[in-house]
Amino acid sequence: MTNKIEEARKVIEKGGTVVFPTETAYGIAADATNNDAVEKVYKMKQRDRSKGLTTIVCSLKQVEKYAELSEEEKKVVEEFMPGPLTLVAEKKGNVPDNLNEQFAFRISSSETARKLAENTPITATSANISGKETSYSVKNISSELREKADYIIDHGELENGPTSTILELNN
């Protein structure tokens, strides 16, 4: 698995897209700080640009590079992450405008996801065409989307778990 993660990271660093497993479902990863890579994800998913994308980060330290966090938000991160909780915070200027109006992030409990995000935050959106069924195996991802992915990490059938809960704390 380590070699697959290294290969996937190289693809992400070059602006490509990767289908990967998380603790909730298969997702599409791209460099969340790269405007063109984020745009590829929208096109792959046929997603309306008004619906922002969330991200996976590897640590609280990494989050603080891209989001303004209150003490309350830091406590939530420390208490409830890693896991399927997405927190919405005020983004800093180094986050592309086409990603989201704010910085929506989570620290995944999936080791694969965290390792993919070690060098840069990655997009964390389900590997499906917008509005279609969530995929828990690569074989259930539409052939159209699989063909557009630059790399796929197949971890077999995932448990059919709940998707991430989104939480926005008002300062």
Task: Please give a structural write-up.
30% of the residues lie in helices and 20% in strands. The mean pLDDT is 91. It is built from six helices and ten strands, in the order αββαβαβαββαββαββ. It has a single domain, classed as DHBP synthase. Strands 3, 4, 5, 6, 7 and 10 form a six-stranded mixed β-sheet that branches. The chain has helices at residues 2-13, 35-45, 60-66, 71-80, 111-116, 143-148; strands spanning 18-21, 26-29, 55-57, 67-68, 85-91, 103-107, 122-123, 125-126, 151-152, 165-168. The radius of gyration is 15 Å and the shape is globular. By secondary structure, the chain is of the alpha/beta class. A hairpin with a 4-residue loop joins strand 1 (18-21) and strand 2 (26-29).
Distinctive features:
171 residues, alpha/beta, DHBP synthase, 6-stranded mixed β-sheet, globular
So, the CATH homologous superfamily? Answer: DHBP synthase
Radius of gyration: 15 Å
Q: Find the structural class using helix and strand composition.
A: alpha/beta
The counted number of beta strands is 10
Total helices: the number is 6
Could you please say which CATH topology applies here?
DHBP synthase
Q: Major β-sheet, in short?
A: 6 strands, mixed
